[in-house]
Amino acid sequence: MNCSNAQPLWDRRDRLHIMAEIMEITKGSQLKTRIMYRANLSFSQVNEFLSFLTEMGFLKVNEVNGQKFYETTTKGERYIDNYMEMSSLLRPEELEAPMLVR
Fold this sequence. Notes:
Layout: H1 15-25, E1 30-31, H2 32-38, H3 43-55, E2 59-64, E3 67-72, H4 74-90
Antiparallel strand pairs: 1-3, 2-3
C-alpha cells in the first residue's frame, strides 16, 4: 500500500480536538460567529458541535440582549485538561502537544 499521499496522523483535527478548541475559545464567553471563525468551522459544523457540547454540559448559554453567548463550564475545563494530558501521551517525546486555538 502506497501511503505517500496519506496525511500524517496529526495533520488533521479529529472531533475530540475540535471540541477542545471550541471549549478553549469559549472560556471567555463568545458568540457563535466568533467561535465559527476562530475554530475554522462551517455554520452547520459549529451548530452541531455547540448543540452537542451544550447538551453534554461542557458549555452553557447566556443570553444577553437577545444574543447567545457560549461559555465553557467547569466540566468543559476538565475536558480540556484531560484532552491535553492524553494528547501529550500519544505524541513522541520530541513533539509538543497539539496547540489549541487561543
